[in-house]
Write a structure and sequence with these properties.
Shape: elongated
Largest sheet: 6 strands, antiparallel
Helix content: 10-25%
Number of strands: 6
Number of helices: 2
Strand content: over 45%
Order of helices and strands: EEEEHHEE
Structural class: alpha+beta
Number of domains: 1
Amino acid sequence: MKSIDIYKQYFAAAADFGGDVRRGASVVLNASSDNGNIEYKVCVSFFLHEDEEDFRISYDRYFEKLLFSGKGRRTKKRDALYMDGLRPAADEIAAENGAVIFWDDPLIEARIDTL
């Protein structure tokens, strides 16, 4: 299976998992394809970020939401469609886990893979 992160960016966040406080979030739009099928999913991982140099990304607080799974291939049109749904899906993931992503406080520049 081929997997690619179409979009990835870190943001400030607020999350408390039973006393395990996280102050950063890695937000990813991922596409995976195999044998004529494609999946798009939003992945969010909350990490410590204790200071501006701290990017210890842990995956013990990792969550994902499947946006699409079916026949097809990756296209610019599909990438744009699911990029539009990235923030609402990530906000839903955060809300379900008692967290907040601060979209207006990016910790790094966005990394975008274009076709």
